[in-house]
Amino acid sequence: MPNRFDIEAITCAEDLLRLPHDEAIRYIAGLQEAALNMSMCWPFWQRADQREPPAPWRIWLVLAGRGYGKTRMGAEWVHERAQKFAGSRIALVGSNIGEARAVMIEGDSGLLSLHGAYALDWQPSLKRINWPNGSQATLFSAAEAEGLRGPQHHFAWADEIAKWTGGDTAWNNLRMGLRLGDKPQIIATTTPRPVALIRRLIGEEGVIVTRGRTGDNRANLAPDFLSAMRSLYAGTRLGRQELEGELIEELQGALWSRAMIEQARVKAPPDMRRIVVGVDPPISTGGDACGIVIAAVGADEKAYILADCSVESASPETWARAVSDAADIWQADRVVAEANQGGAMVESTLRAANVALPVKLVYASRGKSARAEPVAALFEAGRAKFAGAYPALEDQLCGMIAGGGYEGPGRSPDRADAAVWALTELMLGKTGTKPRVRMF
User: Fold this and answer.
1) CA nearest to 215, candidates 201, 203, 230
2) Cα dist. 119→35, 103, 133 in Å?
3) Alpha-carbon distance 413 to 293, whole Å?
4) 91-97-100 Cα angle (round to 5)
5) pLDDT score at 438
6) What is the 3-state secondary structure (H, E, C) of the chain?
7) How far apart are the first and last CA of the chain?
8) In 3D, which of 44, 72, 49 has the Cα closest to residue 187?
9) CA angle 214, 220, 224 (to 5 degrees)
10) How many angstroms separate the Cα of 23 from the Cα of each of 12, 40, 204, 211, 330?
11) How far is Cα 189 from Cα 75, in angstroms, rounded to an integer?
C-alpha cells in the first residue's frame, strides 16, 4: 500500500480510490497546498481508459456512451496541444455552431471549464478562443461543410461525428485542411451509430479506437440517473448504443431489423397459455453454443420470447441439464429440439438429464434463413413479441439474411435457431395458434 504522506506514490485519483476510506482521508489531509493544486490537473483525475493512446496515430476515435466523459477528453486534449505547441491552429467542429459553442467551449466539460481556463481569451463574435502563447482554436459547423475547405490546422477536435449532417463532405474537408506541422492529429468523440463514416474510420490505418460505457464514469454521475437508465434501457438497442457505447450494425437484407425488434418489445406479457423450450444442440463438445430459448403463446394469441437460457461451450450433460432446468423453471409444455445432427442421441441426452422431459424432435428440411422467414413475418405482423431484452439473441436474428446466409456474431445462429423452432411449434404448426385445453 502506498505511504499516505508520499505524494509520488499517488499518481492519479484511481490510486486514492484503491485506499481504504480513512487512509485516503488522512492522505489528502497530509498534502501540501502545492500538491493539492497539482492534483487538480487532468492527468491526475482522468481514468486509465481515458488516457491518450501511445503514438503513432493520426485519429483518436472515442466511441462511448453518454456521460462517459468524451467531452472532457476532447477539451483536455485540445488544451494540452495548444499549450505544448505554441502558435497552433486548431479546428473545433460540431454538428452545428450552436452545439459546438454550447458543448465544446461553454459546456460543463468544455474548454472554459478546465483548470487554468482563466487564461483563455474567448471571442464569441469571431468563434475563436486564444491561448497566451499564440495558439488559437476556431469553431466550425459540420452542417456548413464548405467552411472547412480553406482553413489550415495542426490539430482538430471533431465532436459527435456520427450525427454530422455534413457527413463525409465535412470530414473530408477537415482532413484536407490538416496540413500544418509535422504530425497533424484529430480526436473524434462520439456516441456510436452505424453510419458510413464510423464504419470506415474503424478499419482505417492510423486510427486508434477507445470504447467506453456510461457506467465507467459512475463516480461522476448521479446514482438515480444510472439506476433509471438501466431500468428503462438495459439491453435495448437504444441502451446498448447510447449507454454501452456499442456500434450496432444494420445488415442489408436482414430478416430482422433493429427497429422491428424495438417495436416488438414489451415489458410484461399477458397470461401464458402454452410454453415451449426451443433447443438447437451443438454439434460437438466445446464448439458452438447450445441455443435454449423459452417462448409462449399468450391469452391474446400472440407469441412471446420469454428467456434466452443458452449455454456456451457446454458438454452434452451440461447443456441437457440446462434444458431440463429451463423446462422446470418455466413449467414448459414441451421441449422442441433439432435432431438433424445426432438424431436419437439428442433425445437420449435430454432424457438422461430428465426422463420425464416432454421432448419433440424436429428435422430441418430447409436452411436456417428459410425456416426463419415465416417467423420473422410474425414479428412484422405484430403476432410475435419480445418480453424483455435479449442482446445476444437479437444480434443473431439481425444477422440472418433473406434468401440464405448468416452474417451475425459467431459461427452459427444457435440462439436464433432455437427461437425459430420454439415459435414455429407455437404459431406455425399443424395445430394452429389456439392451444388445446388439457383436462385433469
Assistant:
1) 230
2) 21, 19, 10
3) 12
4) 65
5) 41
6) CCCCCCHHHCCCHHHHHCCCHHHHHHHHHCCCHHHHHHCCCHHHHCCHHHCCCCCCCCEEEEEECCCCCHHHHHHHHHHHHHHHCCCCEEEEEECCHHHHHHHHHCCCCCHHHCCCHHHCEEEHHHCEEECCCCCEEEEEEHHHHHHHCCCCCCEEEEECHHHCCCHHHHHHHHHHHCCCCCCCEEEEEECCCCCHHHHHHHCCCCEEEEEECHHHHHHHCCHHHHHHHHHHHCCCHHHHHHCCCCCCCCCCCECCCHHHHHHCEECCCCCEEEEEEEEECCCCCCCCCEEEEEEEEECCCCEEEEEECCECCCCHHHHHHHHHHHHHHHCCCEEEEECCCCCHHHHHHHHHHCCCCCEEEECCCCCHHHHHHHHHHHHHCCCEEEECCCHHHHHHHCCEECCCCECCCCCCCHHHHHHHHHHHHHHCCCCCCCCCCCCC
7) 68
8) 72
9) 75
10) 15, 20, 46, 32, 50
11) 10
C-alpha cell, 188 = 473524434
C-alpha cell of 10?
499517488
pLDDT (0 to 100) of residue 199: 85
How does strand 334-338 pair with strand 303-308? unpaired
Q: Structural domains in the chain?
A: 7-39 (no CATH), 48-219 (3.40.50.300), 258-427 (3.30.420.240)
For the four alpha carbons of 282, 288, 289 and 293, in that order, the dihedral sign comes to negative
- By the 8 A CB rule, do 289 and 282 touch? yes
Beta partners for residue 291, in sequence order = 280
Cα(126)–Cα(329) distance, integer angstroms? 66
The label of the residue with cell 383436462 reads 439
Q: What is the mean pLDDT of each run of 10 residues along the chain (440 residues)?
A: 46 69 72 53 83 93 95 96 96 95 95 82 96 96 92 97 85 95 96 87 93 91 91 86 86 89 92 95 76 96 97 90 95 91 76 86 83 94 95 92 84 93 89 41
Q: Given the C-alpha cell 459546438, which residue does it identify?
A: 100
Q: Which amino acid is at 219?
A: A
